[in-house]
Amino acid sequence: MNIINDFLPYLHLCPFVFVFLTGACILILRMIYGNQLAMVSYAITLAVGFILSIISLLFDQNIEKDYIYGESLLNPGSFDKCILFIMLFVTILITMSSYKYLEKKKIKAPEFYSLLSWATLGAMLMVASKNLLIIFLGVEVLSISLYVLTSITDYDAKSSEAGFKYLIMGGLMSAVLLYGVSFTYGFTGTFQLDTVKHILVQEQYNIYGIKIGLIFLLTGLLFKSSVFPFHFWLPDVYQGAPMVITSYLSTVSKTAAMSAVYKLLITFMTLKDVWLWPFVFMIIFTMVLGSCMAFVQKDVKRMLAYSSMVNGGYMLTGILSYVMNVQNIDQSTMLIFIAIYNLGSVGLYNVLSTLVKEKSEDLPYEQLHHLKQFSKLGWFTMVIVMFSFIGIPPLGGFVGKFLILSDAIDSSLMPLVIAMIISSAISTIYYLKVVGHISAENQSATISNKVRSEKTVGYYFVNVVSISAIVIAPFVLKYFLNITGK
User: Which residues contact 346 (CB under 8 A, 6 or more apart)?
Assistant: First the structure.
């Protein structure tokens, strides 16, 4: 009994331990069985490990933990735990839709799932920690894993090019981020964001040194968030990466980066006169320029890259609205939008993964033809997701956008409100273009066998979850958050 009591204070580390051990177990299975196990076996291993992580995350610890050293490094609050739950669940869904795709691409590499596990571990560290050094460590674990996963299809030149571009630019921005961490530590004497915030409130700091540190910190994290003007890597990497990794970049990776940006803005609120208006202009350009660039794309994956950029702008609008008006706005808006965007995106990419060719990741609009004829569930999923992204009521996308616009108005951020409305209007065109192509029935049936052969249990499950999240979850989640007072 004493052993159990001694272990209880460390339960807050279990979600991270389970995710790390999941990646390690997959590698051990790889060493023992070689290529004898099917890829679905490794996918199941990852899913089981992540389910255990979710269970441990939801476990309520009614104990004092102040004396634990690790508590100051990894101490997720209620909001952080919700984000962690979303990321873990989305990764499970991506895994369920991945194994058949990997078979089609002839990627017999169990290391894929180890790297996916450790990428998620890095994302979790970024979300759960308020320590700059741990956040940087999380960024590196996430990034290094994604550099490899992006270029894992070695026979595809575009995949290798995407991985190389991501490596070079990501490495540069990691150096910039580390420089910001060093500056902040040098002028405050701490890595803890709470302590930094206290020092700023007490005005016990060198203003110029802190400003330089903040600029470098935001630059590094905004690159990971693909915010203007740090978005130039986005379309090439999204197009060249395997479809399931594009899905991961668009959801889990982006969510982790946004969470880290949110913590920085909260910490450096005292210096809002320095960063507020440059940040507002970056968000405006992210939304409007992203929509314009998505409109002119001829490849679906490149269009979705800019669409992801635009939705990132919406997320930042919600984050900034909360930061600027903490007393009157709660965090439920951010949670609802992030959840709907993530679950909608994973369903979208689940369908698209059945449409790409074996030797290429290119996906021209014409390749979407006849989807309705050969996969009605896939067609319905994409229609619902596109309508949700447009913001048609009463779907989840409309609820999320409406709440963000309301919060932005309450926070007197009218330039962002106008930019968001303009961006949404432009996005209607290219989202409806997708709907038109997937509903076309006058082109040659080039995907029939492919789509039919890939209707696995995972394919159905991911689509159903995505549709349910968009149609039902916004109301259930908002009601739950209201009655619990979160």
Answer: 90, 93, 94, 97, 247, 251, 462, 466
Say how far apart CA 477 and CA 342 lie, in whole Å: 15
Cis peptide before 394 (omega within 30 of 0): yes
Angle, helices 396-410 vs 457-471, to 10°: value is 40
Classify 35 as helix, strand or coil: coil
Domain ranges of the chain: 2-484
Rounded Cα distance between 448 and 133, Å, is 50
Distance separating alpha carbons of residues 326 and 402, to the nearest angstrom: 18
**Helical axes 254-267 vs 132-150, angle rounded to 10°:** 160
Listed in sequence order, the residues at least 6 apart from 258 whose beta carbon sits closer than 8 Å to its beta carbon are 225, 312, 315, 316, 319, 338
Q: Which residue has the tokens 């159905």?
A: 460
Which tokens is 75 given?
């101490």
Compute the distance between CA of residue 427 and CA of residue 100 in angstroms, rounded to an integer. 31
pLDDT at 46 over 50: yes
How many angstroms separate the CA atoms of 392 and 335, rounded? 19
345-375: pLDDT as tens digits: 999 998 888 887 767 677 777 877 777 777 7
* Consecutive H or E run containing 144: helix 132-150
- Cα–Cα distance for residue pair 430/446, rounded to 1 Å: 23
Nearest to 43 by CA among 119, 121, 96: 96
* Euclidean distance between CA atoms 336 and 348, whole angstroms: 18
d(Cα 423, Cα 292) in Å, to the nearest integer? 8
pLDDT at 480 over 80: no
